[in-house]
Amino acid sequence: MSYQYTRPLAILIEELAKLPGIGPKTAQRLALYILNISKEEANILARSIVNAKEKIKKCRICYNLTDQDVCEICQDNARQRDVLCVVETVRDLMAVEKTGGYKGLYHVLQGAISPLDGIEPEHLTIEQLISRLKTEGIKEVILTTNPNIEGEVTAAYIARLIRPFNIKTTRIAYGVPIGGDLEFADEVTLTQALLGRQVFKNEK
Fold it and tell me: What is the rounded distance in angstroms from the CA atom of residue 195 to the CA atom of residue 193?
């Protein structure tokens, strides 16, 4: 007969196992760690989760995470405001920011086009991106979607929409491995990819 967890512990392990990248064994280790910390520490952890869930929202301009109406990056007048880096997720934005080599603005698509997964252009913030290009005086758009099939399809789709604006459109260079995700790339690789970006060539 296999070992049976007491119900509160079983529920805690089950909930922790729902987190991305957390398997049953890791969930068990985390649950036991939580049980070993003080009640005060556990309460701080619980409150921080609830507080983040209640206060963090999407920036109304770029869709980055923020506890304000507009995120700190969009508010920062020291940023290069005529260059826009288009990324799939906030994780990708964080990966680019971590390099310290990019000083422009961002637009977070909230994913990539993937018909097999039911994700069409209208499910992303592409319409909002085009609206920004009409009003913000953007001179260059860097398509920094992931170098996989979904990322390439998304980049090509956006490039077609941008063409009538006569805005310089570049694609992140392939310092990032094909099939990889930006969040797993190191700072040097991402920096080189940004520096080596090229004009996006798109079929008419």
Answer: 6
Q: 199 pairs with which residues across the strands?
A: 170
- 49-88 per-position pLDDT tens digit: 999 999 999 999 999 999 999 999 999 999 999 999 999 9
- 136: which DSSP letter? S
Count of other CB atoms within 10 angstroms of residue 23 = 10
Question: pLDDT tens, 83-142?
Answer: 999 999 999 999 999 989 999 999 999 999 999 999 999 999 999 999 999 999 999 999
* Domains by residue range for the chain, with CATH: 7-55 (1.10.8.420), 65-199 (3.40.1360.10)
Judge residue 148's burial from the number of C-beta atoms within 10 Å of its C-beta, 0-12 exposed, 13-18 middle, 19 or more buried.
Answer: middle
CB atoms under 10 Å from CB of 30, counted, come to 16
Percentage of the residues of the chain whose pLDDT score is greater than 90: 77
What are the residues facing 28 on neighbouring strands? none
pTM of the complete model:
0.80
- State the greatest distance between any 2 C-alpha atoms of the chain, in Å, as a whole number: 69
The H or E element containing residue 171 is strand 168-171
Asked if 78 contacts 126 with a C-beta cutoff of 8 angstroms, the reply is: no
Start-to-end CA distance of the chain, whole Å, equals 65
